[in-house]
Amino acid sequence: MMKEKILAAAVDAFNEKGLKFTMDDLAKRLSMSKKTLYTVFEDKQELFFAMVDYCFGAIKDAERKVLEDENLDIIEKIQKLIVVLPEQYKEINLRQVYLLREKYPKVYKKVEKRLENDWEPTFALLNRAIAEQRIRPINVYIFKTMVEGTIEQFFQKSVLVDQDISYEQAMDEMASILVKGICV
User: How distant, in Å, are the alpha carbons of 4, 119, 126, 128 from that of 112?
Assistant: First the structure.
């Protein structure tokens, strides 16, 4: 319980200050001593590792809800799975996630690995849609690479900031283009 409370507060602190939030900031936010924080997490890097798992756990829960939603047809499920992001993570500053690459490369590697894994439910849905002739036959691995590449570019480039587009809007547009194409 305390660990989850700390992780939720750490995500909020990360959203506000990026990598510059300190364990002092986190302790104040939680109204606890820094010493107590260090009994749960040895250091900031360990906290970041736990945050990755915590965030991706929430994403997997959100994916499960999409898959179980009987009000969505298969195409809607595919489009929602591509962009699934729990409400509390819609404001995450992606530029800060990319900065992990320099300051905490092992943590960033873990983010990359998590993005690359657990595609089986999406692959199953895509293959079912192909079998049902709801979408044309595609190479699901190329599709996956396109989604991952787009997300990585959102991390690295300032296009979203420059165009005043939220991550959520950008992901919705990317999913729409991938699922519906660009033809009218």
Answer: 22, 13, 22, 27
